[in-house]
Amino acid sequence: MAPDGSDVSDRITALVHAAEAGDDTAIERLIPLVYDELRALARFQLGRLPVGGTIQATALVHEAWCKLVRGDNRWESKEHFFGAAARAMRNVLVDEARRKSGTKRGGGRRRVTLDEGAVMSHEPSVDVLALDDALDRLERHDERKYRVVMLRYFAGLTIEETARALDLAGATVERDWAYARGWLFRELAGDDAVG
Length: 195
Hints:
Strand order of the largest sheet: 1-2
Distance between the termini: 56 Å
Structural class: mainly alpha
Order of helices and strands: HHHHEEHHHH
Strand content: under 5%
Number of strands: 2
Largest sheet: 2 strands, antiparallel
Shape: globular
Radius of gyration: 17 Å
């Protein structure tokens, strides 16, 4: 009989805490528990990109995992771990987009759609580099709202999971999410008008 979702979630959280406390073997034991979820997250991220991209879900998971284990490994919870994984995947995709574009503005940019109602129901596509720039601006403007976007949009967490991860009320997360979507839409529309 396979363990239920809450048992796996508890084991992931325990291993995340052990890794934070310095147990290097905890990271190795974490891999089989999170691999399928990381692949699903990678497929979700790649599904936003145009068909024909050069990076596959397995490669994205591998590159993101390498970034995660080279980092500081200070994950407070399962949600925090998946938020860090989503950020690592974002970084891999941005690095790939920069590599393909030769870092020249506008050259070979890869397009991604802010789906799941992230901006609005009929939003235009935005490219990975423009989204990355806008997220950097949001982080400087309002770090909490930036963290909500990272957990909701990139890690795919629910309002409730995001609220738990950030120790906020669900209503606060909903307000921050709505504000951040509008803010990003305006920022990205401004980039399109300029670029």
